[in-house]
């Protein structure tokens, strides 16, 4: 998996118990959880060296995720009966939206749409921090080569 895909996955994982960091030295995306869960030691963010080494990867929040689903419902031509809008209106809109994607057999179309928007958000984030994607990607490639 390339660096951009890992950053997108981290962004789209909106579980607040899954904090992701970008290691600026290695170009790796790190899930900072208990070692028993990840198999890797956690990041000591109290260590001053680590403050500059690791950067918090943003996450999509539920309001933004809902907005993206609404945007998809507006743009797709695969839902002529507006079933996605119906799913978003009422209880458990996220679950109902996903169920409707399966029902309409447009899961792949949704994934491409969501990934494209997530990629734009990651690009904005990287620009904001003046991160060089090509440099980080090269480090990432070298660290995943073994």
Note down, in words, how this protein is organized.
The chain is mainly alpha-helical. It is 58% helix and 8% strand. The chain is built from 8 helices and 3 strands, in the order H-E-E-H-H-E-H-H-H-H-H. It has helices at residues 3-12, 35-38, 48-53, 62-75, 83-88, 93-104, 107-128, 133-143, and strands at 20-23, 28-31, 54-56. The chain has a 3-stranded antiparallel sheet with strand order 2-1-3. It is elongated, with a radius of gyration of 18 Å.
Overview in brief:
The chain is mostly helical and 146 residues long. The chain contains eight helices and three strands, in the order αββααβααααα. Strands 2-1-3 form a three-stranded antiparallel β-sheet.
Protein topology:
Elements: H1 3-12, E1 20-23, E2 28-31, H2 35-38, H3 48-53, E3 54-56, H4 62-75, H5 83-88, H6 93-104, H7 107-128, H8 133-143
Antiparallel strand pairs: 1-2, 1-3
Helix pairs in contact: 1-7
Core attributes:
58% helix, three-stranded antiparallel β-sheet, 146 residues, elongated, mainly alpha
Shape: elongated
Poorly predicted parts: none
Q: What is the quaternary state of this protein?
A: single chain
The computed structural class is mainly alpha
As a percent range, the share of helical residues equals 55-70%
């Amino acid at each position: 998996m390339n660096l951009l895909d890992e950053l997108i996955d981290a962004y789209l994982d909106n579980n607040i118990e899954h904090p992701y960091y970008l290691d600026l030295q290695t170009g790796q995306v790190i899930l900072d959880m208990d070692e028993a869960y990840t198999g890797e030691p956690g990041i000591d963010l109290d260590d001053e060296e680590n403050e500059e080494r690791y950067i918090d990867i943003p996450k999509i929040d539920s309001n933004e995720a809902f907005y993206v689903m609404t945007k998809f419902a507006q743009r797709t031509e695969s839902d002529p009966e507006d079933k996605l809008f119906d799913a978003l209106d009422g209880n458990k809109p996220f679950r109902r939206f996903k169920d409707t994607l399966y029902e309409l057999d447009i899961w792949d179309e949704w994934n491409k749409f969501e990934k494209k928007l997530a990629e734009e958000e990651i690009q904005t984030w990287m620009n904001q921090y003046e991160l060089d994607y090509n440099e980080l990607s090269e480090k990432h490639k070298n660290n995943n080569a073994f």
